[in-house]
Prior knowledge:
Helices cover about 30% and strands about 15% of the residues. The mean pLDDT is about 90. The two termini are about 35 Å apart. Strands 3-4-5 form a three-stranded antiparallel β-sheet, with no helix packed on it. A two-stranded antiparallel ribbon has the order 1-2. By secondary structure, the chain is α+β, with helices and mostly antiparallel strands. Helix 1 crosses helix 2.
Amino acid sequence: MQGTSANTFEPGALITREQMATMLTRALTAAKINTTVKDAKKFDDDKLIQDWARDAVYFMNSKGIIKGVGARAGYGNNCFGPLEKSTREQALLAMTKNVAYMWHQEHNLGSLATGKIANMTILNTDLLNAPIKELLNTNVVATVIDGDIVYQA
């Protein structure tokens, strides 16, 4: 993990969509997964994507891990929104899909859908809506692997 500058690390800061794409891509690279993308269709707001994040943004989009945000005034209908802050929902979705991709199981894992393996952790906190301070007190209620409950509090 790198800081936000040569001498600054901001663990409490909200991350942008391009930062999230970069962190997830670096995790895949560390796992020796090829993250090269050829001939990606550019987003209409491509000029807003930082040079250090561009390859990661296009890789994450090419794999459906982090998708574009649609239209943005002044930029067009196919935008990524690189400087927009990541929502909790976007972060959870990206991390879930990224792990499945890292394991080469994106067709079997990473989301709840017919035909996919039901692996999930059930928590006592709504991660999408709980106040940030409540997240620190989150506990696992149950864990399901291959459709079977393997842990229950």
